[in-house]
Design goal:
mainly alpha; 12 helices; globular
Length: 284
């Protein structure tokens, strides 16, 4: 529940921060703050990351998919679409996970599994195609980025689950934070005026509050909790536990706070997607 609520609200916070910061600046500040917290925990002896004698391949692949790849797709998806539509796209990750299990791990889908995938996908289609912004391709680029986010989020679940066989959830999350900090700060440094984003962070209370929410709540707490779920539960079940609630919160917040366009198509699409997610849990 905590993971779902925080991640559901993250769509709103991200769209608000885009008013003051660039996409890479938001990601750099978010994961730098998370890294500082984990560095303190490591220094205090509360977390240990021992790479000796262990297969670190999946640990690094986990950090590569999230936050390095997923976060880029997600934030650009938000930039070119809306919080409500983006959250509906993310709801299809459990169905995508089930699809990957069918295609690559030879899991027998069954009628319920096939129906859940088709229903969730149809919900996204209804929500996006009937959106006023879709006419003329106004948000097509955003939809493509969110599709990339769904793919990255799906692969992340498998990598994190595999990493959990040798590493603690907090160690996995710490490595994710360090990799994100290095990548996004490096990009900002290459883009120039790298120090200005930190000046904005320390002088603008709204920016500081938004980054604090993303860095502490959505990065440290949520990813540590979600990695724990992935280490102890089936990947599809872990995704199902969080996705439906994230979508509902994201859509409601997007419409009420951001004023995202909504209509009967939004209600129908959201209902179809959440129903597909629910049905996918019945097929596991």
């Amino acid at each position: 529940m905590v993971v779902s609520v925080f991640w559901g609200m993250s769509f709103i916070v991200l769209t608000q921060l885009l008013k003051w910061l660039g996409t890479m600046e938001i990601l750099a500040l978010r994961w730098t703050l998370a890294s500082v917290i984990f560095a303190c925990l490591i220094g205090a002896g509360r977390i240990r990351i021992n790479l000796r004698g262990k297969n670190a391949k999946f640990l690094f692949l986990t950090g590569l998919t999230e936050p390095c790849i997923y976060s880029v797709f997600e934030i650009y998806g938000l930039k070119y679409s809306s919080a409500s539509i983006s959250s509906i796209f993310i709801a299809t990750i459990p169905c995508a996970t089930l699809l990957v299990s069918i295609l690559f791990f030879h899991k027998k889908p069954g009628r319920m599994g096939v129906l859940s995938i088709l229903l969730a996908f149809a919900g996204v289609v209804v929500t996006t195609v009937f959106s006023p912004a879709f006419i003329g391709g106004g948000q097509t680029l955003g939809y493509l980025f969110m599709t990339g986010a769904v793919m990255a989020g799906t692969v992340f679940g498998f990598f994190s689950s595999k990493s959990g066989e040798e590493y603690e959830p907090m160690a996995i999350t710490a490595m994710m934070s360090f990799m994100g900090m290095i990548l996004f700060n490096g990009i900002c440094l290459l883009e120039g005026d790298w120090s200005q984003m930190y000046v904005t962070f320390f002088t603008h209370w709204q920016v500081a509050a938004g980054i604090a929410f993303l860095g502490i709540c959505c990065s440290v707490i949520c990813y540590a909790g979600f990695n724990k779920l992935l280490c102890t539960l089936d990947i599809s079940i872990a995704n199902n536990l969080t996705s439906a609630m994230i979508t509902i919160i994201g859509v409601v917040a997007g419409v009420t706070v951001n004023g995202d366009p909504a209509g009967l198509y939004t209600v129908i699409g959201l209902t179809m997607t959440v129903s597909g997610v629910w049905l996918s849990s019945k097929s596991m």
